[in-house]
C-alpha cells in the first residue's frame, strides 16, 4: 500500500476515477464530470446499484484467483464511456448509450480501465491489471460470475455527460481486501481533532445548489453566525487569502463541477487554512462516508436538507 497514511478509500478511488475523465477529455470530449463518491459497505446482492445489463471489469494481480477490485457500470454507460474514449464525440452519446458493446468499444473500455488500474497500482503498491469483461443481465448480483465475495466496500460515482444526461460508475472491493488495504471503519470520536478550535463566528458554505445556499443564508439569524455561501465555481484555490478571517467551512460532498474532496485537500494543503474546521455536507451520511471524511481531516458531517438546529449543533460541537 502507499506509504502515505493520509490516502484512504475515498481518495484512492477518486484519483483512479478521475483518470477516466481525464483520458476522455484528452480525446476532445469536454464537459464530462464525476460526482461523488458515495461510499458504503454492502452485501453481494446490493453491491451493484443498477438493474438490467451491467458490465463488470475485474482487476487482479497476476496469478490471483479472484479480482481484488471490480469496476461496474451499466451497459449504456460502458458504451458511452468507451465511445468517448475512442474519440467518437459527445454528439454520438445517444446512439452509443442505445447501442451494443462491440469489439471496438470493448477494446476502448479495456484501455480506459487500464488507466484506472495504473492509478490504483501506484496508490496501493500492488500491480493490478484488467481481466476480460464480464456482462450480466440479471436484476441482482447473485449468480454473477464477476462477484464472488459475500460483501463489498463500494464507491459509487455519478457521471454527468456533456449535454446533461447522467450515468454511474461503481468501484467494488471485497470487504476483507478493503479492510487489509484501508483498515476498518473508525468511530467518529476517535478521529476528531483533540485540539479545541473555538466556536466559529463566520461560516463559508460551498454548495452546488443555489436554492440550498439561499435557504442556508436565510437561516443566518437562527444559526447565529454570519453565512457566506458560494458555488463550487466561485472557490478559487489561487485566492485563498480572502478566507483568512473565516472560522469554519461547510463543504458539500457531491458538487456539480468538482468533488468536495478536491476542496478539502486544497484547504488542508494551505498553511493558513489547514487548521480551520471543515464540516462535510451530504444527503447520504452512510457510516463509511462519515468515517472516510473524518480521516480526510473533516471535523463532522451536516445532513441535507439544512436545518438551523443541526447546523447550530454541529458548529457548537467544534468548540
Portion in strands: 15-25%
- CATH superfamily placement of the largest domain: CheC-like
CATH architecture heading of the largest domain: 3-Layer(aba) Sandwich
The CATH class of the largest domain, by name, is Alpha Beta
Helical stretch count?
11
Structural class: alpha/beta
Report on the biggest sheet.
Answer: 7 strands, antiparallel
**How many individual domains?**
2
Structural Rg? 20 Å
Order of helices and strands: HEEEHHHEEEEHHEHHEEHEHEH
Mean pLDDT over all positions: 79
* Strands, total number: 12
Helix residue percentage: 25-40%
**Overall shape:** globular
Report how far apart the termini are. Answer: 35 Å
The low-pLDDT segments are 1-6, 138-143, 185-199
User: What is the third-level CATH name, the topology of the largest domain?
Assistant: Chemotaxis protein chec
Amino acid at each position: 500500500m502507499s506509504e502515505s497514511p493520509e490516502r484512504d478509500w475515498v481518495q484512492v478511488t477518486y484519483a483512479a476515477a478521475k483518470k477516466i475523465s481525464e483520458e476522455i477529455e484528452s480525446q476532445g470530449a469536454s464537459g464530462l464530470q464525476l460526482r461523488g463518491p458515495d461510499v458504503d459497505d454492502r452485501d453481494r446482492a446490493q453491491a451493484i446499484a443498477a438493474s438490467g445489463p451491467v458490465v463488470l471489469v475485474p482487476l487482479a494481480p497476476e496469478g490471483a484467483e479472484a479480482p481484488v477490485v471490480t469496476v461496474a457500470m451499466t451497459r449504456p454507460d460502458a458504451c458511452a464511456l468507451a465511445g468517448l474514449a475512442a474519440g467518437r464525440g459527445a454528439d454520438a452519446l445517444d446512439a452509443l448509450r442505445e447501442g451494443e458493446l462491440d469489439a471496438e468499444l470493448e477494446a476502448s473500455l479495456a484501455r480506459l480501465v487500464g488507466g484506472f488500474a495504473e492509478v490504483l497500482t501506484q496508490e496501493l503498491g500492488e500491480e493490478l491489471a484488467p481481466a476480460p469483461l464480464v456482462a450480466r443481465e440479471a436484476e441482482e448480483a447473485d449468480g454473477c460470475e464477476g462477484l464472488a465475495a459475500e460483501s463489498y466496500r463500494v464507491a459509487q460515482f455519478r457521471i454527468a455527460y456533456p449535454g446533461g444526461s447522467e450515468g454511474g460508475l461503481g468501484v467494488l472491493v471485497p470487504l476483507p481486501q478493503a479492510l487489509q488495504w484501508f483498515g476498518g471503519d473508525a468511530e467518529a470520536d476517535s478521529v476528531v481533532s483533540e485540539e479545541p478550535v473555538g466556536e466559529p463566528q463566520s461560516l463559508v458554505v460551498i454548495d452546488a445548489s443555489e436554492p440550498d445556499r439561499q435557504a442556508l443564508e436565510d437561516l443566518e439569524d437562527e444559526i447565529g453566525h454570519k453565512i457566506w455561501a458560494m458555488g463550487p465555481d466561485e472557490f478559487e484555490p489561487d485566492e485563498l487569502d480572502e478566507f483568512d478571517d473565516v472560522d469554519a467551512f461547510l463543504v458539500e460532498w457531491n458538487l456539480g463541477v468538482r468533488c468536495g474532496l478536491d476542496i478539502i485537500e486544497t484547504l488542508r494543503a494551505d498553511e493558513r487554512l489547514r487548521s480551520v474546521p471543515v464540516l462535510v455536507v451530504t444527503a447520504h451520511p452512510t457510516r463509511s462516508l462519515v468515517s472516510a471524511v473524518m480521516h480526510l481531516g473533516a471535523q463532522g458531517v451536516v445532513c441535507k436538507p439544512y436545518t438551523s438546529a443541526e447546523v447550530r449543533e454541529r458548529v457548537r460541537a467544534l468548540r
